[in-house]
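BUG: 3D viewer hangs when loading the predicted structure for this chain

Environment: internal workstation, default settings.
Expected: structure renders.
Actual: progress bar stalls at 90%.

Input used:
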Amino acid sequence: NLAVAYGPLTVAATGIAQKLISLGSYVYQGFASGVQPIMGYNYGARNYSRMKSVLKAGIITVTGIEIVLMAGYGILAPVLVDIFTDSPEVIRVGAQAVRAMMLILPFVGSVSMCRMSFQAMGNPVYAFCITLVRQLILYIPLLIVFNKLFGFVGLIHAQPVTEAVMMLVSIVLLLRFIDRMNDKYSYGGSNHG
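Structure tokens produced before the viewer hung:
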């Protein structure tokens, strides 16, 4: 809705950019789905050190893959947008939007893995809170403020800023939760880590 103020070509360009970036979401969704049963198994076994190892390895792997994908988007942005339109203006604005939106990729995988880990541990409230904070408390206000302060450039950079903050919040929240569980059960000698 905010993009409408910049005209129909900008709306079209932004829509194309969002569709292109959504392809990158399949990578991190696959990793998050793969981590979920491993985290759940180790949570049930109270093997908290392995949970941290899995989380670290998963975040490093998915972030590395998403950075490579991000580089591809950055280099090929005009070519990719050109697949959907012949309009030079839509291609120009769409490439600009792709290059801004691609900045979410190194962060969203970590957020998704943390959310899935909470679900695997039977704590959907934490997963829901991550989503709620991300959308209502950060993203929507940042969209409005960045749009007002920086115009279209601010509008397309609100999501990367949101995802970067949420990555830090999600990882800290999950690690603290794992540490609390470790402290709770380590006295009984049932922690394998």
